Amino acid sequence: MNQIMGQFGHTGGEEVPALECRKVGRTYMIKRGMFAEKQPLKAVQGINLKVNRGEVLAIVGESGCGKTTLAKMLLGLLEPSEGEILLDGMPISSVSILDIAKKVQPVFQDPYSSLNPRKTIEAIISLPLKVHKIGTKEGRHARVVEYMRLVGLPKRLIHSYPNQLSGGQRQRVAIARALIMEPKIVVCDEPTSALDVSVQAHILNLLQDLREELNLTYAFISHDLAVVEHLADWVAVMYLGRLIEYGRATDIFANPKHPYTRALLDSVLTPDARLGLPEITLGRGLPNPLSPPSGCYFHPRCPKATDECSQEAPVLLETEDRLVECHLYK
Ligand code: SF4
Prior knowledge:
Number of domains: 1
Number of strands: 12
CATH superfamily: P-loop containing nucleotide triphosphate hydrolases
Strand content: 15-25%
Radius of gyration: 20 Å
CATH class: Alpha Beta
Distance between the termini: 16 Å
Order of helices and strands: HEEEHEEHEHHHHEHEHEEHHHHEE
Shape: globular
Bound molecules: iron/sulfur cluster
Helix content: 25-40%
């Protein structure tokens, strides 16, 4: 139990986490019509997470659950409305842009749109070094060659353009570009979801190898639990901006406790997990985050909902091996 709470930073621990969220929230003010008043949309609410060096934290949930907003905050691209994010124990707000770039780098979902089609592979991979005025032209060239080798790209592609590469090769370019600043943390936002199934496994294996070789820490965002099963040490499940289950990946996969996590896992067991969540388990889609349901946000879709669930919001409870936000575990 202490391990779980220590992981969240509730009891403290000796190791300074590589990345930590303390009650992090992000609210957007949204207009629903031309003459309507702005309304708050809580994209992320009160998230406590902690990733130690060399570990992989998977953040999973459906599209619209707030995981991409959280990823942007972890990268310093968005400021939290509440709480704070710490890098190596330092509030991210006090770290310079260059130091954030040295510590945290992103790998995004779509290698087709994240690479400039008019730049060569060398120019794309070396861009972070150039932006931060690191190294000479020759030095940057040598680094590009080294990182191309590291991610399994043939050197002959160095003067090619993105449209001359396959989807998997493009994602390798994106990974090389992320790693060339020698970050300790990589935020992977659905890095394989735009790729063919046959290529996904190669990229996941590459990420796993790089993690071991470079002692990287990953925050791995995915809608698909199957993708993170073999990579993640810890799994955080989000629903409508809230953390609803958190624990060791082995425990979550062996025995999901929250009904939503169970449904996500069931979707993995369907022949094609990318088809989405099974209707039979979850019924209708994600509620409108501008007017979330009363009580437990999940109650309109939950097969185990009781009257209490629609009236009283559950709190995140500490159980034997994880944190879970559900009345069933009171
Ligand atoms: Fe389902 Fe109720 Fe648990 Fe929410 S609190 S997940 S509605 S059982």
